[in-house]
From TrEMBL:
<dbReference type="GO" id="GO:0030170">
    <property type="term" value="F:pyridoxal phosphate binding"/>
</dbReference>
<keyword id="KW-0808">Transferase</keyword>
<keyword id="KW-0663">Pyridoxal phosphate</keyword>
<dbReference type="Pfam" id="PF00202">
    <property type="entry name" value="Aminotran_3"/>
</dbReference>
<dbReference type="InterPro" id="IPR004637">
    <property type="entry name" value="Dat"/>
</dbReference>
<dbReference type="InterPro" id="IPR015421">
    <property type="entry name" value="PyrdxlP-dep_Trfase_major"/>
</dbReference>
<keyword id="KW-0032">Aminotransferase</keyword>
<dbReference type="InterPro" id="IPR005814">
    <property type="entry name" value="Aminotrans_3"/>
</dbReference>
<dbReference type="InterPro" id="IPR012773">
    <property type="entry name" value="Ectoine_EctB"/>
</dbReference>
<dbReference type="GO" id="GO:0045303">
    <property type="term" value="F:diaminobutyrate-2-oxoglutarate transaminase activity"/>
</dbReference>
<dbReference type="InterPro" id="IPR015424">
    <property type="entry name" value="PyrdxlP-dep_Trfase"/>
</dbReference>
<dbReference type="GO" id="GO:0019491">
    <property type="term" value="P:ectoine biosynthetic process"/>
</dbReference>
<dbReference type="InterPro" id="IPR015422">
    <property type="entry name" value="PyrdxlP-dep_Trfase_small"/>
</dbReference>
<dbReference type="GO" id="GO:0047307">
    <property type="term" value="F:diaminobutyrate-pyruvate transaminase activity"/>
</dbReference>
<protein>
    <recommendedName>
        <fullName>Diaminobutyrate--2-oxoglutarate transaminase</fullName>
        <ecNumber>2.6.1.76</ecNumber>
    </recommendedName>
</protein>
<comment type="similarity">
    <text>Belongs to the class-III pyridoxal-phosphate-dependent aminotransferase family.</text>
</comment>
<dbReference type="InterPro" id="IPR049704">
    <property type="entry name" value="Aminotrans_3_PPA_site"/>
</dbReference>
Length: 428
């Protein structure tokens, strides 16, 4: 099996200013070299009127679709009436509404006694705050992370991230973190978890006593690696018995991506600290939360700070999203059934081609290619045919699908038709 010589989209299709002015660090616009303009639900239209089905959804920031009309109308009302936009962490009516609704619809029904911190508007901010807090609470420095983890681009978050190219970008040693094998790292041959347990308990194991373990229940950037429920439960139990804090990074898998609001609910565990961002505002507006058990709230006022921690338009759309989608269990059920539908179609694509397999949970589903470059080629062909999907994994060997959770069954079907054609064309 080889990747066919398919014409890949060319960056020179973009206006010159992208190459002459924007830094070389730009990335998504290289794979999707068109100028996007309008967006609604799961559809994007470029400046030439070409339509794309969006199975990328802002890397998971648009679980409720682009310009969701219910959220948009709340946002427009808020702005039209000159309600306050920027306020750092000053109290505002929009923030009161968000905190009250989050407690009522998300925390209380799940029996989660969490305090809410607004750490700054990005996922990396939420992770930095989580790591700092874990270190402050325990007085220990070391953090356990997992192979192929991704937690963000700031130095603390990078230190617990696996990808060697991204780590190298730090330019300084990334310390105080020890990687352990994620579930199924050895393809089920060895019980991966035992290594961690063993070195933790062995006085000759050489492991500094960790403050915390940070884990994704499904590794989105790492290749859609899905941790088994039993593995997550065993990890939570290990942390509890050894007095190590458990941080679940739910930046990409939270807000319903895997079905329930928090991705760890499937395992019945209660992490000590949780990070949320991406889809928490519901509208693609920057917002992040670090949640933790109330006993862990040892912050001094202002000890973790930031100018953009109280973005009121994000609170408004976040509150509306919670009220619209999380009052009942209906949205969770719909997501699970859409996820099963996507998975059935991916299994069928995988079954028709050697060296291709399907993986995922809920509405994060993926195809893994043994011939890694084929994944990139598939995304290139899919783009030419009007579908946005990105690759992930250490060798970009996985085509990852993150459609908005509100995508209709007809649109899911249409996107999967394009994907099936792209796979067939690539592997022909
Ligand atoms: N954690 C996880 C699990 C993520 O997927 C990401 C972003 N892909 C981050 C943290 C970092 O979020 P941000 O890009 O908003 O800093």
């Amino acid at each position: 099996m080889t990747s066919a010589p398919i014409l890949s989209p060319s960056e020179t299709d973009l206006p010159e200013v992208y190459q002459s002015v924007e830094s070389e660090v730009r990335s998504y616009c290289r794979g999707w070299p068109t100028v996007m303009d309008h967006a609604q639900g799961s559809h994007i239209t470029d400046v030439d009127g070409r339509q794309y089905l969006d199975f990328f959804a802002g890397a998971g920031a648009l679980n409720y679709g682009h310009n969701n009309p219910v959220l948009k109308s709340a946002l427009i009302d808020y702005l039209t009436n000159d309600r306050i936009v920027h306020s750092l962490d000053i109290a505002t009516a929009a923030k009161t509404d968000f905190l009250t609704t989050f407690e009522e619809l998300i925390l209380k029904p799940r029996g989660l006694d969490y305090k809410v911190q607004f750490p700054g508007p990005t996922g990396a901010n939420a992770v930095e705050a989580a790591l700092k807090l874990a270190r402050k609470v325990t007085g220990r420095e070391s953090i356990i992370n997992f192979t192929n983890a991704f937690h963000g681009m700031t130095l603390g978050a990078l230190s617990v991230t696996g990808n060697s190219m991204k780590r190298a970008g730090a330019g300084i040693p990334l310390v105080h973190a020890t990687p352990m094998p994620y579930d199924n790292y050895f393809d089920g041959v060895t019980e991966d978890f035992h290594w961690f347990e063993r070195v933790l308990d062995d006085s000759g194991g050489g492991l500094n006593r960790p403050a915390a373990v940070i884990v994704e229940t499904v590794q989105g950037e790492g290749g859609v690696n899905v941790a088994r429920v039993e593995w997550l439960q065993a990890l939570a139990a290990l942390c509890r018995t050894r007095d190590i804090l458990l941080i679940v990074d739910d930046v990409q898998m939270g807000c319903g991506r895997t079905g329930p609001f928090f991705s760890f609910e499937v395992a019945g565990i209660k992490p000590d600290i949780v990070t949320l961002s991406k889809s928490i505002s519901g509208y693609g507006l920057p917002m992040a939360l670090t949640l933790f058990r109330s006993e862990l709230d040892v912050w001094a006022p202002g000890e973790h700070n930031g100018t953009f921690r109280g973005h009121n338009p994000a609170f408004v759309t976040a509150t509306k999203a919670l009220e619209t989608y999380w009052r009942t269990d209906e949205f969770n059920k719909e997501t699970m059934s859409k996820g099963e539908f996507v998975r059935t179609r991916l299994d069928s694509i995988a079954g028709s081609h050697e060296g291709v397999s399907a993986r995922g949970r809920g509405m994060v589903q993926a195809l893994k290619f043994e011939d890694a470059p084929a994944a990139n080629a598939v995304c290139g062909v899919a783009f030419e045919r009007g579908l946005l999907a990105e690759t992930s994994g250490p060798s970009d060997e996985v085509v990852k699908l993150l459609p908005p959770l509100t995508t209709s069954n007809a649109d899911l079907d249409a996107g999967l038709d394009i994907l099936a054609e792209a796979v067939a064309a690539t592997l022909a």
